[in-house]
Design goal:
By secondary structure, the chain is of the alpha+beta class. Helices cover 45% and strands 20% of the residues.
Length: 148
């Protein structure tokens, strides 16, 4: 009880003195506007540095010996079919031979090696959807007119 009374008395007596000190300090301190141009320049330099790091890392990865096989045209994926959420069948062409692979999260297995190509990898799919899409690409796109 006494501690609350002492704290209240101190606050009442010292309150005006503290308020006067705060107002005097505010008047003496010069008001400075934020340096927006400096902030924009520092943010721009930081952005350029990050972009340079990204391009540098991409350049290094391309120059690494282990990554040169990514642009190899010797292996072509002819077709892929999903069997489940994580299982797939893939037909790939390597050196003129087509190989049927079974792909699971834990393994890739050769299911069959075909002596003659089963699917021509150079021809695009000739399904109904492909024909419709080709027909739509040739048409001009206009919005339908409304008769209100």
């Amino acid at each position: 009880m006494w501690s609350k009374l002492v704290a209240l008395t101190t606050l009442v007596l010292a309150g005006p003195v503290l308020a006067e000190e705060a107002s005097r300090a505010a008047q003496e301190a010069p008001v400075r506007a934020p340096d927006t141009m400096g902030t924009v320049i520092s943010l721009g330099i930081g952005l350029l540095a990050v972009i340079a790091i990204i391009y540098g890392c991409a350049w290094i990865i391309r120059r690494m010996n282990g990554m040169t096989g990514m642009n190899n045209n010797a292996i072509k994926v002819v077709s892929v079919m999903a069997l489940g959420a994580r299982e797939r069948l893939a037909l790939i062409e390597v050196g003129g031979q087509q190989i049927l692979l079974g792909i699971t999260p834990s393994a890739i297995r050769t299911l069959h090696v075909f002596d003659e190509p089963v699917v021509d990898a150079s021809n695009p799919p000739s399904g109904d959807f492909a024909r419709r899409l080709q027909g739509m690409i040739g048409k001009s796109w206009t919005s339908p007119t409304r008769n209100d």
